[in-house]
Amino acid sequence: MIEAQGLNKSFGTIDGRVEVLRGIDLRIERGERVGVVGTSGAGKTTLMHILGALDRPTSGTVRFDGEDIFALKGAPLDGFRNRTVGFVFQFHQLLPEFTALENVMMPALVARKSFREAIPMATKLLGEVGLGHRLKHKPGQLSGGEQQRVAIARALVMSPRVLLADEPTGNLDSGTSGDIFRLLDEIHQARELTMVVVTHSETLAGRLDRVLHMVDGRLAS
Ligand SMILES: Nc1ncnc2c1ncn2[C@@H]1O[C@H](COP(=O)(O)OP(=O)(O)OP(=O)(O)O)[C@@H](O)[C@H]1O
């Protein structure tokens, strides 16, 4: 499903170049749930951004079902991001002025679905994540766990093949974190979804199929 080869990423700073990823090779099978753990600054977020085509590597390739995603540019790359990958961020990144329903509809509207199509899609998903009674609430009127559920529903609205979650429970207490992982479990069972989840919690990572350990821009075996 996902194959990354020789990924390097460096950033230019006023102190010179910072090497953040140093030769990452990985292969993730369809339907697999992979955890990524590592110390702060190890490069986990950078890796997730590259796997989701939110950023480009300095060198190396990422293939989804054999397709080299960085060979795509412009509208085809935007289409890949919108349809193939769902992204859940640590700080949910919901739009504060919009309701839960509108936030979940947003990727569908960006993909030029009509309101008539997007409303039932988003309503169904909010029901699946246990928020059928909170459709009209704005993010500020929801708890942290509820906000993250909305973000998960938004990530799923275009029926992606892959869900990338960067510290989806980083801001939550341990009980709520466990609930979010249970929800990810249910979603995984209900859909044939490949998942990559960054977490600081070895316990939560241990509930996934496989755990990758990142150290200083490399994957430790
Ligand atoms: N745009 C950038 N410019 C310069 N340096 C950057 C940039 N983005 C990330 N870095 C550096 O790359 C390193 C890895 O960052 P990254 O966010 O990928 O780590 P992480 O493993 O996700 O850390 P955390 O667990 O704290 O979120 C850090 O040292 C960070 O300062």
UniProtKB/TrEMBL annotation:
For this protein, the record's InterPro entries field holds: AAA+_ATPase (IPR003593), ABC_transporter-like_ATP-bd (IPR003439), ABC_transporter-like_CS (IPR017871), ABC_transpr_LolD-like (IPR015854), MacB-like_ATP-bd (IPR017911), P-loop_NTPase (IPR027417)
Q: Which GO terms describe its molecular function?
A: ATP binding; ATP hydrolysis activity; transmembrane transporter activity
Q: Name one GO cellular component term.
A: plasma membrane
Task: Tell me which domain of life the UniProt entry assigns to the organism this sequence originates from.
Answer: Bacteria
What Pfam families does the database record attribute to this sequence? Answer: ABC_tran
What keywords is this UniProt entry annotated with?
A: ATP-binding, Nucleotide-binding, Transport
* Residue intervals of the ABC transporter domain: 2-220
GO biological process terms, alphabetically, are: lipoprotein localization to outer membrane; protein localization to outer membrane
Homology family? Belongs to the ABC transporter superfamily. Macrolide exporter (TC 3.A.1.122) family.
Per its record, how is this protein called by name?
ABC transporter ATP-binding protein
Q: Which organism does this sequence originate in?
A: Trichloromonas acetexigens
